[in-house]
Amino acid sequence: MNSFVGSSVSALNWLNVSHPSSGVAPHNLKPADEFSSSKFQDSSVNLYSKGSEATDVLIECKDVYKSFGEKHILRGVNFKIKHGEAVGIIGPSGTGKSTVLKIIAGLLTPDKVFQSAALFDSLTVRENVGFLLYEHSRMPEDKIKELVAETLAAVGLKEVEDRMPSELSGGMKKRVALARSIIYDTKNNTVEPEVLLYDEPTAGLDPIASTVVEDLIRSVHCKGEDAVGKPVKIASYVVVTHQHSTIRRAVDRLVFLHEGKVVWEGTTHEFTSSTNPIVQQFAAGNLDGPIKY
Ligand SMILES: Nc1ncnc2c1ncn2[C@@H]1O[C@H](COP(=O)(O)OP(=O)(O)OP(=O)(O)O)[C@@H](O)[C@H]1O
Questions:
Q1: 116 in a domain, yes or no?
Q2: Which of 88, 13, 81 is nearest to 251 (CA)?
Q3: CATH number of the domain that 271 lies in?
Q4: Is residue 246 lining ligand 1, measured as CB closer than 6 Å?
Q5: Domain boundaries, position 232
Q6: pTM, entire model
Q7: Total domain count for the chain?
Q8: Enclosing H/E stretch for 148
Q9: Ligand 1 near 1 CB (within 6 A)
Q10: pLDDT tens-digit profile of 130-186?
Q11: What is the ipTM of this complex?
């Protein structure tokens, strides 16, 4: 499954995880104390802010379990993501990668998440990209229009503001979704993502379009500024991906999920040289090995 809704549509499913105090997006990460045990049976997902005790750690998944009916998908997942990290979550299909992202984001039911290409089909590109600003800021409309145009230009799209998502190619949709994830009102700090979550941002793209998206993801993270050069506080991002190019270009560290648990963690460099048989089989795409299909 490549999206939060079980759709096989290639999609840049993104989630801005904002500091709880901003309280703007419906998909904000909730503070740790809002994750009650009734919501996450036997699980614990913690969000730390800078200055808290665990200063380095932004997100911690601690013994996270998740079942769908009789299907026990996550069976005690443990990992930490530090401030400033670019982390990939990889592993065989159906192993629960998207489920982990949903849990990090506090999304409990599929009907609460963005669907298909992560764009609202009935809204124009401008309304999609400026969505959070229209909804949650006091920015004047002409300012939002200007910022939307600038942000779209920065992801390589011009004069598409009035188009509907159905009039865009798959790659263009992903860029529009990326523009929406990196636009925000710097003056009012209304939308200030602490971490961005990407679910298969390059699925279904050709190699060159993949490179464009991977470099855009990376540039937002590295420069500490948004697509139009304004300072941002995007400290970290988490990417669920199957694509080798995305692993190589867009992330620094990997968390490998298999059969509901983290079976390996390491840098992207260590991934290629790992002697772990699960990692070796996955990296080489071998049919023989501990991962059974
Ligand atoms: N809401 C749900 N209800 C029932 N089963 C679900 C639900 N969401 C996910 N699943 C099941 O949980 C398992 C893990 O799904 P998930 O999408 O997290 O896997 P994944 O590792 O991201 O897969 P892929 O790499 O194929 O995208 C799958 O078997 C899926 O069918």
A1: yes
A2: 88
A3: 3.40.50.300
A4: no
A5: 13-18+85-284
A6: 0.68
A7: 1
A8: helix 141-154
A9: yes
A10: 988 887 778 889 999 999 998 898 888 999 999 999 999 888 888 888 888 777 655
A11: 0.97
